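Whiteboard transcription, Tuesday session. T.W. wrote the structure tokens on the left side:
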């Protein structure tokens, strides 16, 4: 796989991972609706620590969360941040449909689910989540899970089987 594609996969997957991290620690229920509730100090801290990812946090802060609003915010952020700027126009939508990308996101979500009890004990910063995930990815169990995701994704009609 080309270096550019690997870098883009990392960049784009990081946005999805950050969104999950935000929802894991900062979701609150208000009037029977879920929302992320970050005060201005936290947003400022995120700006210093997480760069462009802080804009995603600010975008979804205090809005009702549902799968559609989350997906829309993530995709808009990715397109605004990368498509036609860091990567050529049209490259990012192709990347989002790649089997390797889908498998990476599925693997990260699986990791978070499998380690939910440990992750809930303390609020860990996003960098720590990425570090723990990268360590786990090297384990035999994680590699078996990743292989099963890659294999199942390649067998689904409409997926990009060449990736």
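and on the right, the sequence the group agreed on:
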């Amino acid at each position: 796989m080309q270096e550019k594609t690997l870098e883009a996969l990392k960049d784009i997957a990081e946005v999805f991972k950050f969104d999950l991290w935000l929802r894991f620690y900062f979701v609150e229920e208000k009037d029977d609706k879920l929302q992320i509730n970050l005060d201005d100090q936290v947003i400022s801290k995120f700006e210093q620590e997480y760069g462009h990812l802080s804009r995603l946090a600010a975008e979804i802060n205090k809005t009702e969360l549902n799968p559609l609003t989350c997906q829309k915010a993530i995709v808009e952020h990715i397109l605004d941040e990368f498509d036609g700027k860091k990567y050529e126009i049209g490259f990012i939508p192709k990347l989002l449909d790649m089997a390797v990308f889908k498998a990476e996101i599925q693997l990260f979500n699986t990791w978070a689910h499998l380690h939910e009890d440990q992750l809930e004990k303390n609020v860990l910063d996003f960098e720590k989540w990425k570090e723990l995930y990268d360590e786990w990815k090297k384990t035999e169990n994680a590699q078996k899970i990743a292989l099963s995701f890659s294999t199942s994704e390649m067998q689904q009609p409409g997926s990009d089987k060449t990736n």
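Someone added at the bottom: Residues 158-163 have pLDDT under 50 and may be disordered.
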